[in-house]
Amino acid sequence: NHNYEVYEIPDNNNYGMEDIKKLHEVMKKILKPIEYQVYKGLYIDHEEESVVAKRLGFISNEKGRTPGYRQIKNITKSIIIKAKEYIEKEGLD
What 3-state class would DSSP assign to 66? Predict the structure, then answer.
């Protein structure tokens, strides 16, 4: 019955498709070009970090790490901060 219980949990996400589209449009305006490329790859196209890093030509000097691991991590952190600031300041309709 565990699967049934999981599917019956109410979704607390109140954001609709219009809110998501609005956020995507705003992010295109407020992000730097490289940040937007990462944002689009990860959050719109749902690609893996390694695919986005490879497309952007990121490399890694660390043995055993995927290319661009650190660059993607730092850019993603910046994207999340900017998105949170926008949502807190402007809100979503």
Answer: coil
